[in-house]
Structure formats: structure tokens, C-alpha cells
Design brief:
CATH superfamily of one domain: Pleckstrin-homology domain (PH domain)/Phosphotyrosine-binding domain (PTB)
Largest sheet: 7 strands, antiparallel
Organism: Culex quinquefasciatus (Southern house mosquito)
Main location: cytoplasm
InterPro entries: CRIB_dom, CRIB_dom_sf, PH-like_dom_sf, WAS_C, WASPfam_EVH1, WH1/EVH1_dom
Subcellular location: Cytoplasm, Cytoskeleton
Number of helices: 7
Helix content: 25-40%
CATH topology of one domain: PH-domain like
Pfam families: PBD, WH1
Strand content: 25-35%
Order of helices and strands: HHEEEEEEEHHEEHHH
CATH class of one domain: Mainly Beta
Number of strands: 9
Structural class: alpha+beta
Length: about 280
């Protein structure tokens, strides 16, 4: 005889954990409220308490119903979800956020900080409180460990170690892959020998004095001519109506000059002719 096909609802129903305080019919009713691809890993009967805002100084009982620790495969997260079997609906939920701190101050009480204030589960059975606490802490631990491993893998993949630079070969030695400075440069104060010497005239100049080019000379003016100095009377050239030109003085000093000009003694004796030659 052919076995009937197993549906997703049947497989989910077999994987769900029932409450020991609920009947089979009540557990099946509860599993039907979980939704598609949702699984309860722990179920218990509880009273839900929340602190009263804004002071959050006192407890207020909100609901009594079936509490499920739900793995939501569609949302890829875990939730505390409370269901009311009388109204056949979900009445409250709280997602397990990162670094959720769950405590158990009493054997029947679990407390943590929720989105609306401090949350307390008052369990009807201590064994269900213990099972719920163990499931919650183990799930949080495993999820945090997987998150840390994923972060470590991503950081290793994104930040590879820096590549080692290629060795620099020494041209003088083919077998030496390192460069060694045999004479290390000195970075002390520079000496005078390290700079070219300036000429004495240029060195004497101040920084604001610069050699200038010779400007073109202008025309000579009479104001530029000074009085004669070191004047020496060499000879005298005179003229009279009776004797004509008269040349007297130190003629010997003029002889070398006159000889270069082509003037001889016979020319000098004829004084008029001498003056003509000088012209």
C-alpha cells in the first residue's frame, strides 16, 4: 500500500517541541499558528510581565499563554512569541537581538531587557523554565560564535598581508641581494670647502649690491673738462711782423717727436715752413 506524501506542515509538526502542560490538540493548534517555515525549539506555558513606563518601577501582567522559542527561516532570526489559544492568535513577540542578556533570578522566572522595557516570563513549570533557559543561552552562544567566525574570515579575505617588496640587487656583486652603504653620508653642518669660492670683489658686495653694466658714454661737455695739472713749458712759438715766427725753448725734447713726424733740422730753421708742416 502506498504511503501518503509527507507535507511541509507534517515535517514541521514533527520537528516542533511541544509543551508538557498542553494536550496534543492544543500543541497541534499552537503549531498551526507558527506560520510558514517557522519552528518552535521550546514551548512552555507562562505569564508575561512588563515594566510600566515611563518609570519602569513596577511589573504589569500582560498575557497568559503558550510561549514558543521560534526559529524563523524566512526572516533568518530567532524570536520569543506568545500565543493565545483562546483567541487563536499571536499576541506578543520579541526578537533575539545581538548581546541579549538573559538572566534567571528564580527557578521559575526568566528576565531580560526588551524593546518596551524589562520583560519577565513567569513559568508554570520549573522544568520548562530550565529547558527554555538552556535553549536560549545555547542559541545565543552558537549564533555569536558563527558571527565572530564570519567576521574573522571576511577580515582575512579583505585585508591580505602586504606583499614583500622584491630584493634590490647590487650591480657590483651579482650574489649579493642586499644593498650596503660602505660609506654612510654625513648629514652634519656644511663646511666652507663644500661651496664654490666667490671672487673677492663679489664677496665684498652686500646682498643688495649687484654689478651693473657700463652705460653708454654720452658726449663730452665742457663742464666735464677740469683744469690742467702738472703743466710744463716745453717751447714757445711766437710771431712778429719783422722776424715772422719765433720758436724758442727746449727744442731738444721735441726732436724725437719731430723726427717721427718727418721734420728735420733744416725744416726747423725755416720757421714758416715748420709751422706749415705742423699744420
Amino acid at each position: 500500500m502506498k504511503q501518503p506524501a509527507t507535507t511541509d506542515a507534517d515535517r514541521a509538526s514533527k520537528a516542533n517541541r511541544p509543551s508538557m502542560l498542553l494536550t496534543n490538540e492544543e500543541n497541534e493548534q499552537l503549531f498551526g499558528l507558527l506560520g510558514r517555515r517557522c519552528q518552535t525549539q521550546c514551548t512552555a506555558v507562562v505569564q508575561l510581565y512588563l515594566t510600566q513606563s515611563p518609570a519602569h518601577a513596577s511589573w504589569v501582567k500582560k498575557w497568559t499563554g503558550a510561549l514558543c522559542f521560534v526559529k524563523d527561516n524566512i526572516r533568518k532570526s530567532y524570536y520569543f512569541r506568545l500565543y493565545c489559544l483562546k483567541t487563536n492568535r499571536q499576541v506578543w513577540e520579541q526578537e533575539l537581538y545581538e548581546k541579549l542578556d538573559v538572566t534567571k533570578p528564580r527557578p521559575f522566572l526568566i528576565v531580560f531587557e526588551g524593546a518596551e522595557g524589562i520583560v519577565a516570563f513567569n513559568f508554570a513549570m520549573e522544568d520548562e523554565a530550565t529547558a527554555f533557559m538552556n535553549t536560549t543561552t545555547s542559541t545565543l552562544h552558537n549564533r555569536n560564535r558563527r558571527r565572530d567566525d564570519r567576521i574573522k574570515r571576511n577580515s582575512t579575505r579583505k585585508d591580505p598581508p602586504p606583499a614583500r617588496p622584491p630584493p634590490v640587487s647590487n650591480q657590483n656583486n651579482a650574489f649579493d641581494n642586499t644593498v650596503t652603504l660602505r660609506h654612510k653620508p654625513s648629514f652634519g653642518a656644511p663646511t666652507a670647502a663644500a661651496f664654490p669660492q666667490q671672487p673677492a670683489a663679489a664677496a665684498a658686495m652686500t646682498p643688495h649690491q649687484r654689478p651693473t653694466k657700463n652705460k653708454a658714454k654720452g658726449r663730452l661737455r665742457k663742464e666735464d673738462i677740469g683744469m690742467p695739472s702738472n703743466f710744463k713749458h716745453v717751447t714757445h712759438v711766437g710771431w712778429s711782423p719783422t722776424s715772422g715766427f719765433d720758436l724758442s725753448g727746449e727744442e731738444d725734447t721735441l726732436k724725437p717727436f719731430l723726427e717721427k713726424a718727418g721734420v728735420r733740422d733744416q725744416h726747423v730753421s725755416r720757421k714758416c715752413h715748420f709751422v706749415t708742416l705742423l699744420k
